[in-house]
Write a structure and sequence with these properties.
154 residues; alpha+beta; TIM Barrel; three-stranded mixed β-sheet; 5 helices; 3 strands
Length: 154
């Protein structure tokens, strides 16, 4: 009998309802006030990632994700790591009540360094289950970006 493999599609909430789920929010607030370092925020993110991985494991998920808790939104995390793209203002994600910072193509788009490798490695080391990296597809990124360089939709 073939076993169906389960996974999670989509992001986990960066901030939950309970006091324990407020770790990242509190770290970001302290950082914004100058009372915490970027390293403190990364530590909080990793604490949340560990919790996300534990929850997926306890639910019996076969292939887990880091929950994308370090991502500000669905587009800017990857877009800001690509050469030739700047991150602009907030716009509505299609016809939803979700917003993202719009990628703005200002020059030739190039991948220059691994974008998700460190986060994936951390999650894989923290998980007994296989971890998949999650990223927006190129068509989604191109559709949601504002093109100020190529001038073409193809």
């Amino acid at each position: 009998m073939t076993r169906v493999q389960t996974t999670v599609v989509g992001t986990y909430p960066r901030i939950g309802d309970t006091a324990g789920e407020q770790v990242l929010r509190r770290a970001i607030a302290r950082f914004d006030k100058g009372a915490a370092s970027e390293s403190d925020v990364r530590s909080a993110e990793r604490e949340v990632v560990r919790a996300v991985l534990r929850e997926q494991a306890s639910a019996g998920i076969h292939v887990v994700t880091d929950g994308q808790v370090s991502w500000y939104d669905s587009q800017s995390h990857v877009a800001r790591a690509l050469e030739g793209i700047e991150v602009g203002g907030l716009v509505r994600y299609f016809d939803t009540n979700t917003y993202y910072r719009q990628p703005v193509v200002v020059g030739p788009v190039r991948w220059t360094n691994p974008i998700l490798l460190d986060a994936w490695r951390f999650a894989q080391e923290a998980s007994k289950a296989p971890v998949k990296a999650v990223l927006p597809g190129p068509v989604t990124l191109a559709t949601l970006a504002l093109d100020r360089h190529y001038g073409k939709t193809r």
